[in-house]
Amino acid sequence: MGPDAQPNAKPAVSRRRVLRWLLGFSVISTAAMVVTPMVGFIVPPKSTAAGSGGKVPAGKVADLPLGKGKVVPMGSKPVILVSTEQGIVAHSAICTHLGCIVAFDDLSGMIVCPCHDGRFNPATGAVVSGPPPAPLPHVTVSVEGDDIFLVPG
Ligand code: FES
After folding, report:
1. Is the pTM of this model over 0.85?
2. How far does residue 105's CA lie from ligand 1's centre (Å)?
3. Taking Cα atoms as reference points, which of 115, 137, 141, 114 lies closest to residue 126?
């Protein structure tokens, strides 16, 4: 304590004031944690299907070299795009076995499900091996210049 300090002087910020501020902060943050998910539920996210006459932009042709594939969103559903000798094709990326999301395997050139090693033909979506009971459903693709669009069915 310095020579000018007074032993009974009140601190600049009282303990009660700090506690009141902390209580207010916790009430506001709790309310935000409750309200934010409710608003997110009531106000739907913007769909990627808006505009372009219902077609969904899915990237550029230049970004999908021949023999490669990638999963892209079509609204809330995943779709796998594959560049084949016959052009760019698309299939649902939801495995017909138990619903895992498939991926394109660069090594084998196949569409592969990571859950139970189901394998699909990249051009047709047909089952090649594994437990999937049905092919991946086809999704219509429209290529306009360098732009790839998915056409919801
Ligand atoms: S969920 Fe795809 S093979 Fe089982």
Report:
1. no
2. 15
3. 137
Q: Of all protein residues, whose CA lies closest to atom 1 belonging to ligand 1? A: 98
Q: Ligand 1 mean position to 115 CA, how many Å?
A: 5
pLDDT of residue 1: 47
Residue 143, both tokens? 């290529």
| Amino acid identity, position 125 | G
Residues 6+ apart with CB under 8 A from 132: 95, 96, 97, 113, 118, 120
Residue 149 Cα to ligand 1 midpoint, Å, equals: 27
For 65-124, write each residue's pLDDT tens digit.
999 999 999 999 999 999 999 999 999 999 999 999 999 999 999 999 999 999 999 999
Q: Tell me the two tokens of residue 78.
A: 């995943």
- By CB atoms closer than 10 A (0-12, 13-18, 19+), residue 44 is exposed
